[in-house]
What we know:
By secondary structure, chain A is mainly alpha-helical.
Amino acid sequence: MADRSSASRWSAAAVLAPTAAALFTGVTAWTLHHSPALPNSSSALKTSSAPATLHLSPPVATGSLSALQSSVRRDAAKLAALRTTLAKLHLASATPSATSPSGLPPARGAAAPATTAVSGGSTYMAAAPAGSPAYVAPQPAAPAPVAQPAPAARPAPVVQPAAAAPPPAHTVTGASGAPK
Amino acid sequence: MTTTGTRLPADVTHAFRCMAVDVNVRLIGSPSAAQSAAAAVEEVFRRVEKACTRFNPESPLMLANAAAESWHAVPAECFVALIEAAKAHAATRGRFDPRVLSELVALGYDRSLPFGVGPVDLGMRLQDVVGRILTIRPPWHPEFDPAASAVRIGPVPVDLGGIGKGLAVRWAADALRGRVESFLIEAGGDVFTVGSGPEGEGWRAAVEDPRGGDQPLAVLDVMDRACATSSIRVRSWRVNGRLVHHLLDPLTGRPGGEGLLSVTVLGPDPAWAEVHSKTLFLAGRNGIAEMAADEGHPALWVDVDGGVHTSSALHGALLWQAPDGC
């Protein structure tokens, strides 16, 4: 019984093996001639098959490096000059240093001279006439100052309904300025 | 000077008249500090008035005006006020111009007029006034010598009335900082406050109705802010029957702000709030909304028909507004 079973299993294998091989060959051949449809198969294939490339700059020659360094130095000098110009503009638009942050000299009378003659000190001028020291005030072409916003920490006030009585005020702003 | 309250901090009020306006001060702090601080505020105003008044021909400002093209030493208050005026003139592209003294004088405002006690009619002939108005003025190029505190104003005399008042408020506030916990200074409609006020809830300012009456048009939150109003309610008078006022347009030399009665502006500094309230007023009814929006000013204005308008930047400070038609 055991021999008969073994013989029949080998017979089945002898039949199935060539069949499976033939089937595999056929399917493979069919697949090679029937690629799946892609919207842009060429670009997709190109993307998937192309190796990752790192574009490196060509080596910098010694001469080019020194030229670049020179360029950087020139630009740094230009930047320094622009910063100086900007500082001068800030200085010109600010109150002269003789005054406090509020614009008022700290000591009354300290700067007042006994003479009305032109001194040799720095001169704050809206427009410098010929021969005068250049300390230029902002000109009419300067941009209008932007009103500063309210402090961020201030809570938003609640506007009362129009029909309600006005909340009590501490003062009045107007021509008469009558206190409340 | 009035002191109320039996425990610290004290609530001290002080009122006096200076620079042709009523000045009101309210101070919250220790009684001794608050009372000495009130005296300091008045001292600041007196110094500014003495240096910058145009109603005294011997004042430093008027002497510098008379000197015109020559250098003239002036006190610190006048020196810095002229610098601030020049900065405002430049920053507003000439819309703020203190060189309207000649026109004010030509219109009869050559002395402190009795405003507020009845109609003021100078009985002048309008054509005579117009003939004296300087319609073409040269660019303003004042010169300053900080070392000598000397100025050379130029050929056209200047008036520091409005900006001088705002600067007096600024400098008075500087004198108060650190001396009291909280304070309010008001001078002819120019307001500046610091701190949380007597109730600890900040400071509120009512906007006066320029048409008259006791009811305010709005109430504004002015805590840690300046507030200024340019209005023709009080400083208006008649020249041969025609109503004129003190807010002169530097482009024409004549009363400006057509269609407007008043403009109120909030800002961080009282002198600049004063400048902006004036320049916005001079924009007139047709131009004020655009200018306020473009420059971001928190502003409220009243037109001749009684319309009350606000810029979007004001809304955060608008606590209450009267119903339409009030």
